Amino acid sequence: MLSAACAAGVAVAFAAPIGGVLFSLEEVSYYFPPKTMWRAFFCAVTAAMTLKVSHSRRYLMKFLNPNGSGKIVLFEVSYQKGDWHSTELIIFIFLGISMGIYGALFCKLNILWSRTFRQLRLMKTYPVLEVVMVVLVTAVVAYYNPYTKLAGTRVVADLLSECTEKDVFDGVCPRTADEIPELLRLMMFAIIVKIGL
Questions:
Q1: Where along the chain do its domains lie?
Q2: 24 with 38: CB under 8 angstroms?
Q3: Low-confidence residues in the chain, pLDDT < 70
Q4: What is the C-alpha radius of gyration for the chain, rounded to an integer number of angstroms?
Q5: pLDDT of residue 173
Q6: pLDDT of residue 66
Q7: CA angle at residue 164 from 158 to 167, to 5 degrees?
Q8: How would you write 96-126 as a 3-class SS string?
Q9: pLDDT at residue number 78
Q10: End-to-end alpha-carbon separation of the chain, Å?
Q11: For position 43, what pLDDT does the model report?
């Protein structure tokens, strides 16, 4: 049941039933027999098709709108200006390598945090104190930057969508070239804060 539910959740979030099954296989299950795979795939396809049908029917869309955006998937992006350029592959390769290193470093730091900070007597006695500390640090550090205040899904959607002249300025699309340095400074600070948090 857990494998099928996980596959359905990923299938609905990204409109990718096969990706949902693969995610469930990799992350949720330690034992994944073929019959479980087919059941998870059927559940993921059913969930994705239900969401697709609900968005084609206006009266159902009010009730089945998990993202609050009216779109089928969480990170739906459409480009109107043409294909990607081969020079963009360099950026994708850099992102893949750097995020792989960041993921490995994150795992190491998480283990270190668990072995040191969580072993303190105060943390063992009052485990809620860790949550309160994280919330306070996050609130203080993230309050002054508009990119750290926005939800992650909104920032990703804004960064992946094209800027058009009719868009209202929301901090992602600069109106003039003079706004670009400040925009980049805020984005770099937001990246550093998000990585730190």
A1: 2-61, 81-119, 129-196
A2: no
A3: 54-82, 164-171
A4: 21
A5: 76
A6: 58
A7: 70
A8: HHHHHHHHHHHHHHHHHHHHHHHHCHHHHHC
A9: 64
A10: 33
A11: 93
